[in-house]
Amino acid sequence: MVAALRLAAVAWDSPTAVSASRLGRERASLCAAARPGGQCCARRGLVLRCQSGGGAAATAATLKKGEAADAAGFTVVMKFGGSSVSSAARMREMADLILSFPEERPVVVLSAMGKTTNNLLQAGEKAVSCGAPKASEINELAVIKELHLRTIDELGLDSSIVSGFLDELEQLLKGVAMMKELTLRTRDYLVSFGECMSTRIFAAYLNKLGKKARQYDAFDLGFITTDDFTNADILEATYPAVAKRLHGDWIDDPAIPVVTGFLGKGWKSCAVTTLGRGGSDLTATTIGKALGLREIQVWKDVDGVLTCDPNIYANAVPVPYLTFDEAAELAYFGAQVLHPQSMRPAREGGIPVRVKNSYNRHAPGTVITKTRDMRKSILTSIVLKSNITMLDIVSTRMLGQYGFLAKVFSIFEDLGISVDSVATSEVSISLTLDPSKLWSRELIQQELDNVVEELEKIAVVHLLQHRSIISLIGNVQRSSLILEKAFNVLRRNGVNVQMISQGASKVIIPPLPKWNELCFLHMAK
Ligand SMILES: Nc1ncnc2c1ncn2[C@@H]1O[C@H](COP(=O)(O)OP(=O)(O)O)[C@@H](O)[C@H]1O
Ligand SMILES: N[C@@H](CC(=O)OP(=O)(O)O)C(=O)O
User: Fold this and answer.
1) Whether residue 335 has its Cβ less than 6 Å from ligand 1
2) By the 8 A CB rule, do 432 and 389 touch?
3) Which tens digits make up the pLDDT trace of 107-155?
4) CA of 525 to the centre of ligand 2 (A)
């Protein structure tokens, strides 16, 4: 069972018309890419080379589990997050870690170094208002340059591996400053520099160590996505395309693939897309499914998935086993440790996911599989999601019950806003909104105003902001025990629950308003 406490969700998005094509043409340039044998590959500008129908070489069938290991020699995906590749020292350790498993034939997936993605986003925000002459002086740009050049230097590599990217990045920020806007599309292109650089550095370093490696940009490898910039979904064509390319390259010239996490190519726009924050986990599980590998390893900076966020409760301990459903609920309801969509390919491919600590490689970590023995399990994990927006919608009975529910959800569909958790009675609905679908602060209020205005045509609406959701993920067979304990704690702490729901997956409990008024307690299996 899973339980979650939600207080309030706030997120925003800018549907600003994409007007980056000129910028794209201006910025499209060729940058050196570290490849075995010193070859260079072309880096795309905002618009990538596109194939008809978005199918992108999707001719091979996805390999069944185990087939790829025989055919191409790959056995596992090893994904290293930003904290695992944050410096030259960390990159050395990760190379050593990979080489310490000589029996494995890994596909390596990397995130951007350290906080690079955050720095790129901040640099972009600053560029919008700083004016073109000042764009080169943005502090985050200097931090990014310094980190990558220092890493290259400390690893004894050639600065040309990243210098083209750094020049292009500066140009791009000047372009943003000139345009005075940062569209979602440009934002994705901007953050792609992080993964493009980290993978090139790491592949070059492995090559320097004599371990043949080949760098891949996911958007060239076959990751085809929807055109939902900043939060794109992976399309089915990705699996056969990725399998065909990795397999074919291995047969031609065996080398460890080092793939950019987080990135894809929009099937209509052919532009760089990103899979949402933390999306490299999804890249890893997608490759695992595409190649039918034995295991997907996700290397983090903690000893696996913990009983709760260690930043909230320092004594959190690792959870040894989870099911895909539990892990997905946990991630969806706010645990930062895994990307919410990342379990789907692993579940579909039946490939175990192991969450490991790159700072403590011998710790067993968490193994995530389809099923597990739940007999001794009570409460597995607690997740907090803050800054939740909640709506209480009470029917004015102008429509019948069916008509009322249908109308409410069609309003959300029309406005493109995702609903997170729902509790209903005959004449009312309480629901929380998914913050990840909303991006810009101004727009969120505008969008909320639109929702409320539409809903008020058929209902009395109360908008509650700055709520939180506590999700309790646990054994639904023990739900009464879990809820008894949870409510005792909440009562003792003066927290009033405003909404309760249990996920259909039967692994979660949910949200609360401010800390002393729980708006919703969600429970899932
Ligand atoms: N339930 C949880 N279990 C483990 N880590 C959690 C949990 N909730 C939040 N976290 C945070 O997630 C971080 C690990 O994920 P992440 O930052 O994505 O690592 P990386 O960037 O290296 O992939 C931890 O450092 C921890 O602070
Ligand atoms: N670099 C991206 C993608 C990612 O997955 O990062 P990490 O693995 O460090 O969470 C981000 O920061 O969102």
Assistant:
1) yes
2) yes
3) 999 999 999 999 999 999 999 999 899 999 999 999 999 999 999 999 9
4) 28
